[in-house]
Task: inverse folding
């Protein structure tokens, strides 16, 4: 009986337990091997990114508008200063990567379509792109966040080295802005001309969660008249007549195209400038002796919305998906291959 029991135990060990242990060890070893391979592949990708060399555009001539100095800088070092000036560091990584690709594209477009005789691009956001020195940028962040914020932006640039947005194999004019108010604008409604085929009006959800989405400006009748007189000295408005302040026409993206102020009809773009509104997407209401402008969005509304990019990234979109949402029928290519 004891022998039979011993045979039975040996049989179970040989047929079931030992193979199970061996299988578990094999699986464990296989998983470890897979992890090692994956890490090696990741390291290879990182090494390739870090060793990326530009065959052209690797060094640019940057004009510092305040001093008139022209500085030669590595393009990706320059982009760290641009992205840290243009987009909050607490935005999602994929939004920052999208901004890096957009800023690189915009830079190369400027190089190919020079505006400055002695430089490729300047550091004035009203002319080219915003730029801030690393020292000034770090000083404006909380001390506890400085290192992590800069590393996050550096990684966004480094992990997109050489990538630019193209249309018909040429770098696009990669406009961007803060908040579209939910829908972007086409350039012809902002600057006139014939526009660009890759800059179409697109809708983006989630932008209403940002502070840039809505704003208000309330002006007294006298303040409104004085602001308009900066351009039109003969302006005359009958505030008792509801027809004397009236939006006459909207663009396809619901922005103001034409508005009447008494004896003058102004474009939405001009009104935005004269009155200091955040965008041309606004409504006008009278409140007693005051005129209130309720505004949606922030910026000209053309191209990539930065808050829209962050909202998309929060919803799981990758940088290239974000870019292809805001720029129609484009490709993302390695600049060395152009």
Result:
């Amino acid at each position: 009986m004891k022998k039979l029991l011993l045979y039975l135990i040996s049989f179970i060990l040989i047929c079931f337990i030992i193979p199970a242990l061996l299988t578990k060890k094999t699986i464990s070893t296989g998983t470890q091997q897979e992890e090692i391979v994956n890490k090696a592949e990741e390291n290879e990708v990182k090494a390739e990114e870090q060793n990326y060399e530009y065959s052209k555009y690797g060094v640019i001539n940057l004009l510092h508008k305040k001093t008139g100095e022209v500085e030669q800088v590595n393009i990706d070092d320059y982009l760290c200063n641009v992205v840290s000036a243009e987009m909050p560091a607490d935005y999602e990584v994929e939004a920052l990567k999208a901004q890096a690709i957009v800023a690189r594209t915009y830079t190369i477009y400027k190089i190919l379509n020079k505006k400055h005789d002695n430089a490729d691009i300047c550091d004035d956001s009203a002319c080219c792109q915003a730029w801030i020195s690393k020292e000034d940028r770090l000083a404006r962040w909380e001390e506890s966040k400085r290192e992590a914020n800069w590393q996050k932006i550096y990684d966004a640039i480094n992990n997109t080295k050489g990538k630019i947005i193209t249309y018909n194999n040429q770098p696009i004019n990669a406009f961007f802005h803060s908040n579209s108010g939910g829908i972007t604008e086409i350039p012809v409604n902002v600057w006139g001309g014939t526009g660009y085929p890759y800059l179409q009006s697109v809708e983006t959800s989630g932008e209403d969660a940002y502070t840039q989405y809505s704003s208000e400006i309330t002006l007294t009748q006298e303040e409104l008249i004085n602001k308009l007189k900066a351009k039109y000295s003969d302006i005359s408005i009958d505030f008792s007549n509801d027809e004397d302040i009236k939006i006459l026409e909207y663009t396809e993206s619901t922005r103001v195209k034409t508005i009447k102020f008494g004896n003058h009809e102004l474009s939405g773009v001009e009104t935005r400038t004269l009155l200091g509104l955040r965008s041309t997407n606004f409504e006008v209401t009278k409140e007693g002796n005051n005129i209130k402008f309720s505004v949606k969005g922030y910026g000209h509304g053309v191209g990539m919305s930065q808050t829209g990019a962050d909202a998309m990234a929060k919803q799981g979109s990758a940088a290239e998906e974000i870019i292809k949402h805001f720029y129609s029928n484009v490709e993302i290519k390695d600049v060395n291959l152009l």
